[in-house]
Amino acid sequence: MGESLPANRSQGTTADRMKGKVCLVTGGGSGIGRATALKMAEEGAAAVLIGGRREAEIESAAAECRTLGSQSFAIRTDVTRENDVERLVGTAVERYGRLDVAFNNAGFQERRAPLEQQGNTVYDDVFDANVRSIFLCFRHQLPVMFARGQGRIVVNASVSGLRNPNPGLSLYSASKAAAISLMRSAAMEAAPRGVSINAIAPGRVVTDMMLRSGVGDMSSVAAALPLRRMGMPEEVAEAVVWLLSDAASYVIGHILAADGGFLAS
Question: What is the reported pLDDT for 71?
Fold first, then answer.
C-alpha cells in the first residue's frame, strides 16, 4: 500500500477529467473497455488497472496506457469469479490505498438464435457475465469507496436493456435489463454515502462482441440509425469518462444512451 503515483502530465491531454485518479476497468482488453482505459490515461489518470480474461489483450492495453503517462497494470480477471474480482479491487487498494472510479464493462452476448434454441449453459454464461459480475464488482468496490466517502462507478448496460431491438438475443436483452435495475437500486443506496453509480447504454457500436453475435449486414443496420452509421468504441468512452468525472456530480442512477439516436427513433 502507498505506492507512489506519477505526476500527471497535462500537456497532450484534453480536459484532464481523470487527473490524479486511480481507475479500474473490467473487460479492458478490447472494444469499449480498452477505449475507456486509454481515454482515462489520456485525461490524466494516475493509475489504470485493467481486468480481463485475455492476457495478451489486457497487457497490450496496459502498455499503451503507460505510454500516455499513467501507471497501468493488467490483471487477469474473470468477473464471474468472486476471488478474481476481490483480487482486482484489492490490487488497487494494496498499491494506492484507494479506488476512485470504476467502469464495470465486462459482458457476454450469446450467439443469435431463437430463445427455444438457447440452452441452460448459455443462459448461465450470459447472466453470470452481465449480472452476477456487476453484483460482485459492487460488493468489493463499494466498501473501498464508502471508506473514503467518495467514488464513481459506471456500468456498461445496453439499449437492449431498455428496448429489445435484437430478435435472437433475448437472454442478452433480459440480462441487461436486470443489470440496469441492479444499478439503479445500488445507486439509491450509495448516493447518501458519497458514491455515484450510473450506466452507459451503447447502441450499435462496432466491437468484437457485436461482430461475434451475428449482427448481419452492418451497412443495412447503420442505414436504419438516425446518424446513418455505426458507433465507435472511442465515442462511448467519451461518455463513460464524463459520467466518471466530477462534471457529472449531480447525475445519479442515470442511463446515458450513446446510441446514435436509436432510442429516439
Answer: 97
- Name the band, by pLDDT with cuts 50, 70 and 90, for residue 238: very high
Tell me which residue range forms the domain holding 147.
22-258
Is 6 contained in some domain? no
Q: Dump pLDDT digits (tens) for 213-231.
A: 555 566 666 656 666 677 8
Going by the DSSP 8-state scheme, the letter that residue 207 receives in this structure is -
264 found inside a domain: no
Q: Is residue 263 part of a domain?
A: no
Specify the DSSP class assigned to residue 205: B
pLDDT one-digit tens code per residue, 66-84: 999 999 999 999 999 999 9
Domain count, the chain: 1
Residue written as grid cell 440509425: 225
Q: Can you give the CATH number for the domain in which 249 is found?
A: 3.40.50.720
What is the amino acid identity at position 109? Answer: Q
- Write the burial class of residue 107 (CB in 10 Å: 0-12 exposed, 13-18 middle, 19+ buried): buried
Residue 123 among the catalytic residues? no
With beta carbons less than 8 A apart as the criterion, state whether 9 and 20 touch: no
- Spatial separation of the C-alpha atoms in residues 157 and 105, rounded to whole Å: 8
pTM of the model: 0.90
Among the listed residues 96, 123, 172, 250, the single catalytic one is 172
Q: Is residue 5 part of a domain?
A: no
Task: Note whether 50 and 25 are within 8 A (CB).
Answer: yes
pLDDT (0 to 100) of residue 212: 57
